[in-house]
Design brief:
Elements: H1 3-10, H2 32-49, H3 53-66, H4 72-84, H5 88-101, H6 103-116, H7 120-133, H8 138-150, H9 154-168, H10 172-184, H11 188-201, H12 206-218, H13 222-235, H14 240-252, H15 256-268, H16 274-283, H17 285-288, H18 292-305, H19 310-322, H20 326-339, H21 344-356, H22 362-375, H23 380-392, H24 396-409, H25 414-430, H26 434-447, H27 452-464, H28 469-482, H29 487-499, H30 503-515, H31 523-538
Helix pairs in contact: 1-4, 2-3, 3-4, 4-5, 5-6, 6-7, 7-8, 8-9, 9-10, 10-11, 11-12, 12-13, 12-14, 14-15, 18-19, 19-20, 20-21, 21-22, 22-23, 23-24, 23-25, 24-25, 25-26, 26-27, 27-28, 27-29, 28-29, 29-30, 30-31
């Protein structure tokens, strides 16, 4: 429960602070009621720490009844709990109480929840009240700007923005906010003027200077924009943002050499990090990939420039995978696992790459499975892969011990837990340990009662080994209800009926199995069953 994190921080009493005794210090004495309140407050906190959530909730409600008008912290915590439980009305009620009791301490929580529940009008009332209590609170004015804009009350939003700028001065964020407000009001000239004013006072801010030129490009004042780009690049030749925006312009003109030039210049920039450069390539990918060698060279350069950054290798390997150049992609993905061996995503990508490449060897699979299993101690998917590997190698003792341990100790999604119990049952069957196999299949069916593969294997093995034929029939019947044209499942059901002496009904289902026989089905076993059923009918 995410709300517990909030509660563990919020559960701090606001009503008493201990003072260190000294020769001249008077230690305040708490009344009996205050001591009682404090005891239950910390008892509630203790229950949260022990994950005894029901008792913690009850204690909080008790505290609320004990002092409903004085303790804002308790009301705030009750709001958190009711929000987590999805009770909007009560959550809002307790957040409101906490705010009314201690506005400065709890207004953020209250306003945030009001906006989350799309009640901006009440949020505005709270914020406007706070501007009177704390007229220099920049955060309150900032939020007011956004809430007024959300209500499309741009006149008030601009007034609030004026106040923000009065307190903070003109900065990039404020210039951008003012620009957005004017754009929303349909005033493009005023919008650009807001950015112009900022750039005039801050000519060294290369990002906003590039943005100013781009805005002129947006309103089709191309010559003005190009002039501003030229001026900015003369001042700051390393301004990658200018090259990024210019690449958009040249892309629209289908000017390949200019786009390539812009990309090359931006990739050389020391002002940009890897993420910005990857974004640049992503923006121009469709355009640049028509020249695959050049695009590959750009990505190779990033790998050389950022040899310890996983994302650089990911981009280059993705390029090769898209072109089915799996041999080039594999060492890059392997390097990614060396850089960040705890990354689940990377190990999954490595396995998917092996499966996509028909040239992948058993040795490659084994290396990846063994390493991933070691680095993913809480993921049952790799237990499943490791168990399959051991089974293929005939190391069934090791596979059984590992699975039985990991199923109980490791985490993972339900799919792999089900798959592991099923695989464990299959291994026990291969060893003719039928009781152990049935126990494993039972665990599978507890988790997934309609798991068809398990139902079929369980039913067939139970029947042919002298087990409960009625139980076997019920399980097998489920499989043909779900897949009435599956020859394997029909064969199982027919054979169970045969073992029960229901030869005529067995003949009906074995014939249906033959009618639906696929190339991948075991024709030899099915025909053997068919002959025995026919012989029984002839007697």
């Amino acid at each position: 429960m995410l709300f517990l994190l909030t509660l563990s921080v919020a559960l701090q009493p606001v009503y008493a602070r201990r003072q260190k005794p000294g020769s001249d210090t008077v230690v305040p004495q708490m009344t009996q009621d205050e001591q009682r309140f404090r005891y239950y407050f910390y008892e509630a906190q203790r229950c949260f720490d022990l994950e005894q959530y029901g008792r913690a909730m009850a204690l909080m409600l008790f505290l609320n009844n004990l002092a409903p008008d004085t303790d804002a912290a308790t009301n705030s915590n009750l709001g958190n709990m009711y929000q987590a439980l999805g009770n909007t009305e009560k959550a809002l009620h307790y957040y409101r109480l906490a705010y009314m009791q201690a506005p400065i301490a709890y207004w953020r929580q209250y306003v945030s929840y009001l906006l989350q529940k799309d009640e901006p009008a009440e949020a505005v009332q709270v914020l406007e009240r706070l501007t009177k209590i704390e007229p220099k609170n920049e955060e309150v004015w900032d939020i007011l700007v956004s809430v007024y804009a959300r209500q499309e009350d741009y006149r008030k939003a601009l007034k609030a923005q004026n106040k923000v700028e009065e307190l903070q001065g003109i900065n990039a964020a404020n210039a951008t906010n003012r620009y957005r407000l004017y754009v929303a009001m349909g005033k493009p000239k005023e919008a650009i003027a807001a950015i112009e004013r900022y750039v005039e006072h801050n000519p060294e801010d290369y990002r906003m200077a590039a943005l100013r030129a781009d805005l002129y490009m947006d309103i089709r004042q191309t010559q003005k924009a190009l002039q501003l780009y030229a001026e900015e690049l003369e001042r700051h030749p390393d301004n990658a943002y200018a090259y990024l925006f210019l690449s958009h312009h040249y892309r629209e003109q289908n000017n390949v050499p200019k786009v390539i030039c812009c990309v090359e210049q931006a990739l050389r920039s020391e002002e940009w990090g890897l993420q910005e450069k990857l974004y640049l390539l992503e923006q121009n990918a469709a355009f640049l990939q028509t020249e695959g060698e050049r695009y590959e060279r750009f990505l190779l350069q990033l790998v050389d420039d950022y040899p310890l950054e996983e994302q650089a290798y990911k981009a280059l390997s993705g390029f090769y995978i898209a072109r089915k150049q799996y041999g080039k992609a594999k060492p890059l993905v392997q390097t990614m696992t060396d850089i960040n061996p705890r990354s689940k995503e990377t190990w999954h990508s490595y396995m998917a790459l092996l499966q996509a490449d028909s040239a992948s060897t058993d040795e490659e699979y084994e290396q990846v499975i063994r390493k991933a299993y070691g680095y993913q101690p809480d993921d049952l998917e790799w237990t499943w892969w490791m168990a399959r590997l051991l089974m293929i190698r005939g190391e069934t003792d090791s596979a059984i011990v590992m699975m039985q341990t990991d199923i109980r100790q490791r985490t993972g999604n339900l799919q792999y837990k089900v798959s592991l119990w099923t695989l464990l049952g299959d291994i026990f069957i291969s060893r003719e340990q039928y009781d152990e196999a049935f126990a494993a299949y039972e665990e599978t069916l507890k988790l997934s009662p309609d798991h068809i593969y398990t139902l079929n294997n369980y039913a067939y093995t139970l029947a042919v080994n002298g087990g409960d034929l009625k139980k076997a029939e019920r399980m097998s019947q489920k499989t043909i209800e779900k897949e009435p044209d599956n020859a394997t499942y029909l064969d199982t059901y027919a054979w169970i009926l045969y073992l029960q002496g229901q030869y005529r009904l067995a003949e009906f289902y074995i014939q249906r199995a033959l009618d639906n026989l696929q190339d991948t089905d075991d024709r030899e076993e099915l025909m053997e069953h068919y002959q025995q059923i026919k012989q029984a009918l002839a007697q």
